[in-house]
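Collaboration report, partner site 2.

Our partner group contributed sequences for two proteins of shared interest, and the home lab folded both. The records are reproduced in the order in which they were received, starting with the first partner submission.
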Amino acid sequence: MSFTTDESLVPAGLRSAYCGALRAADTGRTVSVCGWLARRREHGEHLAFVDLRDHTGIIQCVVDGARDLRSEHVLRITGTVRLRPQGTVNPGLSTGEVELGECEVEVLSTAEPPPFSLDARSETDEAVRLRYRYLDLRTDRMQYNLRLRAAGEQCPSQDHGAAGVRRGRDADALDADAGRRT
């Protein structure tokens, strides 16, 4: 499952780009991205690969391995967009051709380790997911469902607005006694 990037989104505040919006055309550009740490992979003593996730997708960042970064920490990473080395391109990601290198990491918020992995590959008991439903909403599956629902609710209202139809409530629906009348 992948997110689609709305090109009309304009980054503001702490970020200069969204994680899922970076492409090979951005190579050489210095950007700041913000998001949740999705995955960390150690590659030697002083080198780590971090997958940073926001609502648009995931970007791989090459960071100093000495930093204590854990799953679901909220980070701001500033680095230079560069092409991934030959043979390491990930066709499963929209940002799979690029990574952020020469990164500076700022921890915006720390987090306790989640009670279950938010990775799409993990299967977790439904009772645990319901107990921690606020975490379950961060999974790809739930994000996709929420965006699909929002798109479905948005289309009819946009069409009606363009046709001059105003959304409103029936007076009887607002009347508290409407159901009790005889």
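Second partner submission, folded after the first:
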Amino acid sequence: MVNFEQVKLLEAKVVKAIEHIERINKEKNALLQQDTELRGRVESYQKQESELKARLESYQKQESELKARLESYQKQESELQTRLESYKTRIDELEVLVTRFKEDQGKIEESILSALDRLNQFERDIEKSLKEKSDDKADLSTAEQTENQSTVISELENDSDLDDSDTEEPIEEPIIDEEHWDDIPDPLVDTASQEQSDETKNGELDIF
């Protein structure tokens, strides 16, 4: 038969078993609760991880775009630098050309002024020479006219003396109208005038 002590021992064991089961249930519930919390955290972490991955992809995409822009800007900078160097070289060449042009312009102006001075001196010399030739020809023409008049008068006087000695009859001397004497064309004067006109034309041609 079962005695009282055995019953008490069994009851004590049952109580311990019940307490142990309750403790296990509490621990189980706690573990379940922790598991639920952990699952929630895991889901939250997974969601955050997805968001972070999306952000990372966006940042990587932005990084790629920024790299492409940077390369484009570097290329443009290189082209602008090349253009700037080309412009600087062109500016230097233009400055040299401007300096040479100024120097050449000064020389050209001096040459033009010198040529004008020589041209003016040449014109004065030609005018002086033509005037001297004209004066000389006028004096020569006057002397020839006087000599011709003297010759004609001498011949007329000689003819008159011969007639007087042969016929001894008075012969009227030819009347020379001095007013119309100048109307008689002098071939020497006409020739001198023609030569002067030709020399004037030649002088004008030489000037131009």
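Feedback sent to the partner group on the second submission included the following. The two ends are 168 Å apart (CA to CA). DSSP finds two helices and no strands in the chain.
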